[in-house]
Give the backbone structure.
Amino acid sequence: MTHGMHTDTHLPYLDGGRDWRDTATRYALLPLRVFLGVTFIYAGLDKLTDGAFMKGSGSGSIGDMMRAVRDSSAIPALVDLALKNPVGFGYAIAFGELAVGIGTLIGLLSRLAALGGALISLSLWLTVSWASDPYYYGNDLAYLMAWLPLVLAGAPIFSVDAALRARRRQRAGGYR
């Protein structure tokens, strides 16, 4: 064989001799990360810019929504806690969604961001969408399940976390 002529049947991989399946596996969580990151950023901004939502009472307010789901939620005490200060709870959810979305999208503290997203989704499932019948009509359970792979795997590519890992490895002489 002369001067780098390839005779193998596999498509080349970015790092060298791996095939397309390895590439697909490496990038498999990226669409999920982008979807969840953009969705949670949008959800947080939507809440912050909706004048009716950030009120203790009135049509479309966080307060009225929480009062409406209180008796049908899995954990009414959680709703009661939110009802002590519905506007503060609304801001906490909105800023939490923003932080989770940004962290997930750019891959900064990605496992922690994904855990935050899972906890937000879990709390919304146990309160707001618990009474959905059948259960799969409530989207919060699906979001909770979507966060779990990112909790486990983090953001191994195209992320601040990956860049920081590579930088630490480079400083340590490639042995990390």
